[in-house]
Amino acid sequence: MARLVMKFGGTSVANIERIRNVARHVKREIDEGHEVAVVVSAMSGKTNELVGWVNEANKHYDPREYDAVVASGEQVTSGLLAIVLQEMGIPARSWQGWQIPIETNDAHGSARIARIDGARVIEGFGRREVAVVAGFQGVDPLSGRVSTLGRGGSDTSAVAVAAALHADRCDIYTDVDGVYTTDPRIVPKARRLDRIAFEEMLEMASLGAKVLQVRSVEMAMVHGVQTFVRSSFDDPANPRPGTLICNEEDIVEEQVVTGIAFSKDEAQITLRKVADKPGVAAAIFQPLAQANINVDMIIQVASDDSTTDITFTVPTAEFDRARAILEKAKDEIGFSTLQASTDVVKISAIGVGMRSHTGVAADAFRALARKGINIRAITTSEIKFSVLIDAAYTELAVRTLHSLYGLDKA
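User: That's the sequence. What structure does it adopt?
Assistant: Structure tokens below.
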């Protein structure tokens, strides 16, 4: 007998028939004698609808009331799944975040989990009861107000609950059957990975892969939660194993490059002829940081006239705000012109095998050059490198690198 946490996303619980399918997956594990807690998202599209209603009511809303509204989507799903399980003869009850409780800080809309007391859920296991937990939500213990964890927060809820319950594993069920070497819609030969290291998954999630939320991978890595990505659309009686996210030492045979990720959520900003003197970088990036705008891929190129050009990227959604902040600070920064482009994409290669191999990035630069793809910017770390290119070359670049590193071969 094992203790499991099963998480199901919005597409998996989009209607009552799909909720019944989820219940069949849960029943399979119960029939095998396991203790099960289920974490659910809101029905597909429901959170967007709720957010839309909040904005229609008042664009300058109170974040605490925003959380009270948007957290209701998961409450509905958890109750419906408990009802379906009961109809199947399986003892079940729904749990809201505040009932467990899942305690968070007071950052409403993007709260972070501080503590989970799993005692009441574990007590229910003693009665052979399935706990159906509303994901994405918790409670601020100081105010007693409902809090939400931000987009994709149900993944984080599931991993955190698994850690609190000392679960043997956490299965994240989604609309894909695992983690792939890249997006199969772009590269039909992309392969599902049997295993991927926590660090690799963390990089892939942060660099554009949409399979898991970044914070959920961080939490799984910190707490050593064995996590599987699986498909809820598999036959409940004969599901595929999915992809195991695990420690690097649990992977017997490492690829140099494990996967290729890409992000279209990038905007490039270049400040021309900035005075090349101490304090300039702080004048540029400090006001952006104060506005909570994330900056990536910074490049500085000095000229012969004691000036420098500074290029960096920001998320597309923050592009207009970033440009306005920089234009306002133009006199203090001292740049001559601001050039910008939103028609760019970041392509990344990830693999723990890069630690022990040289020339991995250089091979990519040559391969892209042979395809006539110009590189605008480069960043590297111990287990990944990223290049910024024109968005028109996205598919060609992904396919080129996927083939270069042999990822399309079984």
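The chain has a mean pLDDT of 93.
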